[in-house]
Amino acid sequence: MAGLYDAALYRFDQPVPSFWEAVSGGGEARALRPLAGDVETEVAVIGGGYTGLSAALHLVRDHGLSCAVLEAGHIGWGASGRNGGIVGLNCTKRTIRGLEETYGEAETRAFLNSQVEAVDLVAGLIAEHGIAAEAVGDAEFGVSHDRKGFEALTQLCDGYGKYGIGATLYTQASFAREFYDAREQHGALKVHCGFAINPLRLVQGLAHAAAAAGARLFPRSAVLEWRREAGGHMLVTRTGTVRAKRVIVAVNGFLDEGLHFGLAGRFLPVISNILVTEPLSPDLRAAHNWRTLCPMWSTRTLLFYYRMLPDGRFLFGARGDTSGRAEDGARMRGWMERRLAEVFPHWAGVKTEHFWRGLICMTRNRVPALGLLDGDESVSFAMGYHGNGVNSAVWAGRALARALALGKDGWAAIPAIYRGGAPRFPFPELRRLYLAGAFLYYRATDR
Question: Which residue range(s) make up the domain with 30?
Fold first, then answer.
């Protein structure tokens, strides 16, 4: 495995010690068997997360194409099964004004519309397939950590309004009355498009739906070798092979860059860390006037994301580590516990019962990438959701399925902001150093 971080982050044979695994691990998806022997299919998907499973479901169900999914861990091992469960907009690190300057208003509108469509798609799949995803909330909030952050939220509100996306600004006082009161709360933006889920339940439900439609799912089947052959591709695992006419790469932050030369140096995996507390009593929640199950994110550049879970536990996430080593993860946990107590001082004595890490995926141009690998019409990919992949990845999987089935018309239907390969990073072997420098700068200035 040619990963950017310490091997501790790539132990595909070990379950993640997440809260989601503790309450939702096992089940039908965990009972699936690895690939055994030789398989032929029209489309092979590398990666059994939201993107890959959505692609498989829509390829088989909507377009009648056979499909086999190869996942290195168990279904739900990767980011799809361990994220914060936030379904919302903004899978880019560009501002709306920045998107307009680069791509124009028409493509910016198409991109934002696709994000709203992606939220609706997830809600629709949950309802259609009876997925017990524990959906709660009816919006997402951006919370300003200082006055400058509120100015940024005001600009975002104006941008959303321009493109018909409902959003409401709250002053510090009104937000404190209606949602919660704490330090680093200087007003907020409510985006009327979003909700929160149990992410592992969603990926398990998508796996069930894809398998029921006829897709073949093979967990614990990492691709060790990829060969181009006459008429297609040969993917080799430890226990079998898959011959396919076409391949979809849908691995996001856990990409093995040695798998294909066309993928190397194009993506930046970033470690995201999450802790979950013990259940908070009604009195503790009332101490900060907490009144919502909607998910939240802060305006810090090194953002916090957080939400109250249905059982009263508090989920708190942050970026920061650049090594992936276990000891650095322990230090990150301690730092997050201290920051949680600083932001929510009435919860300073609350115990954290779960802590885990995973990888989000970013691109050099700070937008997602959906395209053909080096112009090869038989190899497509979708990656780079910038920490907002729950709905974006599900949408991207469906978009790839349509593109493979419909050809040029399918690709043309994807907004231009997504289309094409992510540009390579200069001196890609230095990506971790770039990231470490950025984190040092942001921690010094993000006050």
Answer: 7-440
Mutual orientation of helices 199-213 and 105-128 as an angle, nearest 10°? 80
Task: Say which CATH number the domain at 408 has.
Answer: 3.50.50.60
Burial class (CB in 10 A: 0-12, 13-18, 19+), 374: exposed
Residues of the chain with pLDDT under 70: 1-2, 439-447
Pairing of strands 195-196, 37-46: unpaired
Inside any domain, residue 447: no
Cα-to-chain-centroid distance, residue 296? 15
The answer as to whether 1 is a domain residue is no
Helix (H) or strand (E) run with residue 326 in it:
helix 326-343
User: CB–CB of 133/127 below 8 Å?
Assistant: no
Q: Is residue 2 part of a domain?
A: no
Write the pLDDT tens digit of every residue in 57-111: 999 999 999 999 999 999 999 999 999 999 999 899 999 999 999 999 999 999 9
As beta bridge partners, residue 129 has none
